[in-house]
Amino acid sequence: MEFHSIVEAVHAYAGSQPDALCLADAKRSFTYSEVWGRITCAGNVLLRAGLRPGDRVLVEHTQDALFSIALLAVQAAGCVFVPLERGVSLERLERILAETSARFFLGKHSAKRLPDGVCILDTAELCENCANAEEIPWDYPVPSSDETAEILFSTGTTGKSKGIELTHSNVIAVAENVVYGVEMQPGNVEMIFAPLSHSHGLRRHYANLLRGNAVVLCESVVFVQSVFELIDRYTVTAIDIVPSAMKMLLKLSGSRLAGYGGQLRYMQLGSAPLEQAEKERLRELLPQTRLYDFYGSTEAGCSCIIDFNREPDRAGCIGKPTVNSEIRIVDENRNPLAGSSAEHPGFIACRGAMLMKGYWRQPELTESVVSDGFIYTTDRGYFDSDGYLYLLGREDDVINCGGIKINPEEIERAALRYAPVAECACAAKKEAASGEVPVLFLLLKEGELFEREVLMAALAASVDANKLPRDIRIVTELPHTYNGKLQRSKLREELNKG
Q1: Does residue 361 form part of some domain?
Q2: What EC number(s) does its UniProt record assign (predicted)?
Q3: What digits encode the pLDDT tens for the residues 211-251?
Q4: Residues 307 and 349 grouped into a single domain
């Protein structure tokens, strides 16, 4: 069945499978019928409070079923969902408020910092109290496919964050990329750790709702016993998790995941690269489970995907284009390259129905990256002879050392093979003679000692001599975005201060 919005899909499933599980978390669970009842009730409350179709509504994140109901109620009312991470800084909050002209805020934690004139509603009260509310008929049309569904503000790995505007048809197309990419089957129950305030987790949640499946939301892997209790309670068949959380789950749970090999159909890992050691550990524990890595952005979601359990020997590979995605490799003038390779890479350009409507109220910025239906990235990559796409990193991250282009991820992958290293990052330091030189930052495992000569020998085994780091620094932490992406730009800024 074809749907024009996620809201329309939930409405349809509330009629065709009213008692099927839709949303759950550690405290509560709702069927499709119960979710639709709460959506209509909350939507009516919002409209009666003065919300108008097209209004932007800030919704403060909580990783639970009520957050999902709140965002769907906003969209059902014909309004625009704008997620806001919990504990957002005052500066970011004020900027998003100003840029969106939002008049409504759903949440609790950040409400006291809002200016006068913004209507504040508590998400929990709005969505849970609907259970006891008098049934209110829904007399409003579901949103059309070309209406704006959401504005997702980037966390900004480089520079100022941007508002990415997505229509309902964009949302559906990304969800389809996920559905077909992971070979999602009916009856799927997916546990999602990735926060719904960011594109990765949000889109996996949408994908399951589009197919009438169930979503189990979990906030943290720290309480590992509670995680496995939820997996057992809802017979979870799939897991979506960011690499940093996956690493912690493996550390805390030992080999316990192996006991779920017959239950877990697939796992999705994204928002940042998963280290090779964790990939190998997952393959060992779950040999029959599909293990997905993917390439995409908030602007063009889930454009490429690979099951690294089926394709274990393709280091740096991000798979093949998904169902709604077309990818080409272009040169610096945006001309398609007839044949790209590891020796002759180009820039990744992508188009498809999932491509954003544009950057919110920034037409010139939109025009600078979108042309002829393609979004042109600064990500360098190439296709191999089998049609697999390989990602070499962002052009901004590439280190130009005397004319030699050095991919920092090549050095990082080699460094991670050195046993004492828990995490690492490579960034460019300006230098008079060569222009830039690579500097390697290491975060060591607890109790491990660092031997420079041993590490350099390990690096030299797979990295050309003219690409080896000129300096190695031991650090206690590395900078990441809210959803786990490594921020090499911050390291570069620190290296080149003054």
Answers
A1: yes
A2: 6.2.1.3
A3: 999 999 999 999 999 999 999 999 999 999 988 889 899 99
A4: yes
Number of domains in the chain: 2
Amino acid at 473: R
Say whether both 335 and 371 belong to one domain: yes
CATH number at 337 reads 3.40.50.12780
User: Which residues are within 8 A (CB) of 438 and not within 5 positions of it... i.e. 6 or more apart?
Assistant: 399, 401, 406, 408, 411, 426, 427, 428, 429, 467, 468, 469, 470
Q: Is the dihedral of CA 396, 402, 407, 409 positive or negative?
A: negative
- Pair 54, 159 in one domain: yes
**Pair 444, 462: CB distance under 8 Å:** no
Residues 31-56: b if buried by 16+ CB within 10 A, e if exposed? bbbbbbbbbbbbbbbbbeeebeeebb
Q: Comparing C-alpha atoms, which of 344, 345, 297 is closest to residue 325?
A: 297
- What's the pLDDT at 131? 59
Assigned token pair, 307: 């099951």
Helix H or strand E encompassing 170: helix 168-181
Q: Could you tell me if 97 and 239 lie in one domain?
A: yes
What are 26-40's pLDDT values in tens digits?
Answer: 999 999 999 999 999
- Whether 166 and 47 map to the same domain: the answer is yes
Amino acid residing at 272: A
Residue 193 sits in the same domain as residue 309 = yes
The amino acid that residue 101 corresponds to is: S
Give the range of the structural domain holding residue 440, as residue numbers without chain letter: 397-495
Q: Output the pLDDT for position 158.
A: 46
DSSP H helices, 240-383, are 243-253, 276-285, 363-369
Q: Which residues of the chain have pLDDT under 50?
A: 133-134, 157-158
Of 345, 360, 390, the position where a domain reaches its end is: 390
Nearest to residue 246, comparing CAs of 277, 219, 215, 278?
278
